[in-house]
Amino acid sequence: MISAAHLPGYKLYDALKDSAFRMGVCVGLCLFAVFASWVVVANRFRMFERFAMERNIVAAGAMVLLAALPILRFIRRPGSLLGSGLTAWTIFSFLYRIICLFFAGLSSWHGAWQVFVPGMVLYLIAATLAWILGLVWRVRASHSASRENHQLT
Q: What does each C-alpha distance from 2 to 6, 7, 67 come to in angstroms?
């Protein structure tokens, strides 16, 4: 059997075909877009200061909804959930570090590592809970199937 020669960069192309990786990249970029918009509006547009609480609620809600997308999409595949979530949060944390160069108050508020760790922990907890619930679901399904087989005889 003749094996095809793999060109340089083939593994990167292979990773781009993975739906968890693609979703992680998209969610990470969207999280940063919402956060950057939030920071720019809060710091550059003084006319919106009287709507500060509403602005913060809307922006935080949008970020929570975006961060929940990998959890909702991959709830039945904990490995993909973890991969997608950590990819998204890594991209967001890296871009947060870059925006800290332009807004000096951000790095004194929280550093990039202080942003990354809580997000990582939340995705680890979500993946663990999804894995445990999947195990419980499969065990219950196998018990109910074996009970039905015993009642038929």
A: 12, 15, 44
Q: Tens digit of pLDDT for each residue in 127-138? A: 999 999 999 988
pLDDT digits (tens, 9 = 90+) for 75-130: 999 999 999 999 999 999 999 999 988 888 887 888 888 889 999 999 999 999 99
* Calpha distance 89→25 (Å, rounded): 9
Residue 55 near residue 42, CB atoms below 8 Å = yes
Residue 56 CA to residue 41 CA, distance in Å, equals 10
Q: Are 71 and 10 in contact (CB under 8 A)?
A: no
Full-model pTM: 0.78
Q: 19 Cβ partners below 8 Å, 6+ apart?
A: 80
Residue 53, by phi and psi: left (phi above 0), alpha (psi -120 to 50) or beta? alpha
